[in-house]
């Protein structure tokens, strides 16, 4: 430990800590823009400058270590002036057209400018207008980039992809797609982690709300919306509501106010996925020699894109089951449309997802099995749904609670946990156990796959089937490590759940953005709580799923299921 003084407060702090860490631990705020703890401590923005007494220097707090006896001033006249000058220099290259920026009100640069009382701009330079490519879900506007390097570090260290890089030299140094490519020609998984870690509006997810508004206004179209598991525990954050007020029922009520004809639940399709994927796993497991191992989950499109570009020789290890989002679309435009006597070409399916990669998944040319049109017409992120509510002047806290519509609106506890890392595996094992033994396991029998390390393993015995070796992994850099181990033969699994985003969809790239806060674990904990409180905790016990099989699909892996609910990932 060393003894230091910050703003006249004497502190004992661990040796090796940075000034910023020491100050934050003591509750002394120091502004920063480029800093991401342990990921990006490069002092690029110079916002965290502090004065160290008895030296002539101002130093960046984020990467200067404390020294015994150090006396630090975080708010001296020199410090204030330096921060203001540095911020004005950043603003001199920034498109400050805040009124029409999607991050307005949630932009770290905007907030800091206000906090530092910068209300005029002496170095005003008209930034070059950006070329914006709307073919892909992740959109970059170069003129809003402040060169903080956060996206470069997140993509490189957390997602292991290196899609972003430094480009140019000197005063023209900027960040761009590596090797001067267009994003659509890279292996970008569109996970959106760069977006949720960008402090400004330089990286955003393409806004598709107008397509939905057009469909809602068309009297010939029946609009159907599905809401993903992880959306329900995050949507209310942008309205400052606690989880009790920002309930599922209020979200449903708000979607009905927006004007959707049917408000359904992706949880229904998650239960359906378990029926198909669980059956597929048992088919593979009991005919081991016919298949390549392990079997991988296929519900995360970020992961599917990653596998196909980075380890293409493992593509046939993916479950052929479509994701719940896509199963929902296919069932809505076949079973549901027939039940209601609707022309499937006039049913418009919207998904609300915590995910940017889901936009690309819905646009795959193979995802059109119900009637030849895309099974899902538009995907909106959680943030876009919140913007729809605001633009319709809906105040969710003032609404009563409403229920999802029937029959695609029911889901079990096993379905809602899809949104948290480990949830798909847990749910699949609950039903696989039932399918083999005819009896339910304890709903918490597989809790070893929940939470904890980002790459975890467990072995379970299913009587009559034998030992099943499973792994769960999230965050693509961890996924790469797992794939390398699988490839080297140093690990041996039967079934692996993979989610591209750290912590699973709860931490997806379409979720509300909070500066310097990672909320995947706390949102995931809410999903596990919903499961624990559910009356039904096994997908195979969802009565609407049972009715779907009884009256339409007949059996998991049957002919209709094969056509509507499975896909060839190599196509
Ligand atoms: Fe997900 Fe899934 S869990 S992939 O994160 O399998 O997006 O929430 O909807 O499809 O159910 C996302 C979440 C989501 C699918 C399900
Ligand atoms: Fe999308 Fe979830 Fe995959 Fe992230 S983990 S890319 S949010 S499906």
From TrEMBL:
Belongs to the complex I 75 kDa subunit family. It comes from the Bacteria. Residues 135-166, 179-208 form the 4Fe-4S ferredoxin-type domain. InterPro entries: 2Fe-2S_ferredoxin-like_sf, 2Fe-2S_ferredoxin-type, 4Fe4S_Fe-S-bd, 4Fe4S_Fe_S_CS, Cytosolic_Fe-S_CAF, Fe_hydrogenase, Fe_hydrogenase_lsu_C, Fe_hydrogenase_ssu. It is found in: Membrane. Residues 1-78 form the 2Fe-2S ferredoxin-type domain. One of its GO terms (cellular component) is membrane. Transmembrane segments: none annotated. PROSITE patterns: 2FE2S_FER_2, 4FE4S_FER_1, 4FE4S_FER_2, 4FE4S_HC3, COMPLEX1_75K_1. The keyword Metal-binding applies. This is (2Fe-2S)-binding protein. It comes from Lawsonibacter hominis. Pfam families: Fe_hyd_lg_C, Fe_hyd_SSU, Fer2_4, Fer4_7, NADH-G_4Fe-4S_3.
């Amino acid at each position: 430990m060393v003894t230091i003084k910050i703003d006249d407060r004497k502190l004992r702090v661990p040796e090796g800590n940075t000034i910023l860490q020491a100050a934050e631990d003591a509750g002394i705020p120091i502004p920063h823009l480029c800093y991401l703890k342990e990921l990006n401590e490069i002092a690029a923005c110079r916002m965290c400058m502090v004065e160290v007494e008895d030296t002539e220097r101002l130093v960046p707090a984020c990467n200067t270590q404390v020294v015994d006896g150090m006396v630090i001033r975080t708010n001296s006249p020199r410090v204030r002036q330096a921060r203001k000058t540095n911020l004005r220099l950043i603003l001199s290259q920034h498109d400050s057209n805040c009124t029409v920026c999607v991050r307005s009100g949630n932009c770290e640069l905007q907030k800091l400018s206000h906090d530092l009382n910068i209300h005029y701009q002496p170095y005003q330079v008209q930034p070059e207008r950006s070329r914006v490519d709307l073919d892909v879900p992740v959109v970059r506007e170069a003129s809003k980039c402040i060169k903080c390097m956060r996206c470069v570090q997140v993509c490189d260290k957390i997602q292991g992809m290196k899609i972003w890089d430094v480009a140019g030299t000197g005063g023209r140094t900027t960040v761009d797609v590596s090797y001067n490519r267009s994003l659509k020609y890279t292996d970008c998984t569109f996970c959106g982690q760069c977006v949720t870690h960008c402090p400004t509006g330089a990286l955003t997810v393409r806004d598709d709300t107008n397509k939905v508004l057009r469909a809602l206004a068309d009297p010939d179209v029946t609009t159907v919306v599905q809401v993903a598991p992880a959306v329900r525990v995050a949507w209310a954050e942008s309205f400052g509501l606690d989880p009790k007020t920002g309930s599922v029922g209020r979200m449903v009520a708000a979607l009905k106010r927006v004007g959707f004809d049917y408000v359904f639940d992706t949880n229904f399709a998650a239960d359906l996925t378990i029926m198909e994927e669980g059956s597929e796993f048992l088919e593979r497991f009991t005919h081991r020699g016919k298949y390549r191992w392990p079997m991988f989950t296929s519900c995360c499109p970020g992961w599917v894109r990653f596998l196909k570009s980075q380890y293409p020789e493992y593509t046939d290890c993916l479950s052929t089951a479509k994701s719940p989002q896509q199963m929902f679309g296919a069932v809505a435009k076949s079973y549901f449309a027939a039940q209601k006597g609707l022309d499937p070409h006039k049913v418009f399916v919207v998904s609300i997802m915590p995910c940017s990669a889901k936009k690309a998944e819905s646009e795959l040319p193979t995802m059109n099995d119900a009637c030849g049109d895309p099974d899902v017409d538009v995907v909106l992120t959680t943030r876009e749904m919140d913007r729809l509510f605001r633009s319709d002047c809906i105040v969710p806290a003032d609404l009563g609670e409403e229920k999802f519509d029937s029959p695609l609106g029911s889901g079990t506890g096993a379905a809602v946990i899809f949104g948290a890392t480990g949830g798909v595996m847990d749910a699949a094992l609950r039903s696989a156990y039932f399918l083999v033994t005819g009896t339910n396991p304890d709903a918490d029998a597989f809790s070893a796959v929940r939470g904890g390390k980002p790459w975890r393993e467990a072995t379970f015995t299913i009587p009559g089937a034998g030992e099943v070796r499973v792994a769960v992994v999230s965050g693509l850099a961890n996924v790469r490590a797992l794939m390398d181990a699988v490839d080297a033969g140093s690990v041996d699994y039967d079934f692996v759940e993979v989610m591209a985003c750290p912590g699973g969809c709860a931490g997806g790239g379409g979720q509300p953005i909070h500066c310097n806060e990672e909320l995947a674990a706390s949102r995931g904990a809410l999903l596990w709580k919903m499961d624990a409180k559910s009356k039904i905790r096994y997908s195979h016990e969802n009565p609407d799923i049972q009715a779907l099989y009884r009256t339409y699909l007949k059996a998991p892996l049957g002919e209709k299921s094969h056509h509507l609910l499975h896909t060839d990932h190599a196509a």
